[in-house]
Amino acid sequence: MISADERFMRQAIALSASAAARGNEPFGAVLVKDGELIFTNENQIYTAGDPTYHAEAGLLRRLCAERGITDLSGYTLYSNCEPCFMCSGAMVWMKLGRLVYGASDRDLCALLGVEGSEPSRIVFRESGVSTEITAGVLREESLAVLREYFKEHGKG
Questions:
Q1: Catalytic residue list contains 56
Q2: Which GO terms describe its biological process (predicted)?
Q3: What is the pLDDT of residues 16-69, one digit of tens each?
Q4: Of 47, 54, 107, 133, which shows the fewest CB atoms inside 10 Å?
């Protein structure tokens, strides 16, 4: 039996593949509350012409605009890759309850041949917000989509 984390991470990974198929970078995000899918989004930096339209930041912007939700303390956000500093900062402002990601920033940076860090852990730790972080869920599946895209494309 697959866990809820695996089920929702598979959706984030599918969104990341969809983003790549649409000409964007391969990142996807899923927002869940009480085991129910609330919102999804994929990276749209190229199709939207907005370098800040990451899967997570875009999800949070759309969620606020469409549903007026600004407190995510009871929510879990799934991302196929560890969120960047910008997206993590947005999650802090919205008091995200839990973050689950597949591949780490260090994994991504290793694919790109650059040095990585732990942006989400750094931002959440320094902010004082008590977001629970679960890393490495379906890491290899997440890496497969990233690896496929970045073997032919540069970042940003």
A1: yes
A2: purine nucleoside catabolic process
A3: 999 999 999 999 999 999 999 999 999 999 999 999 999 999 999 999 999 999
A4: 47
Q: Among the options 25, 56, 66, 132, which is catalytic?
A: 56
Model confidence pLDDT, tens digit, residues 67-83: 999 999 999 999 999 99
Please check whether residue 49 is in contact with residue 84, taking contact to mean a CB–CB distance below 8 angstroms: no
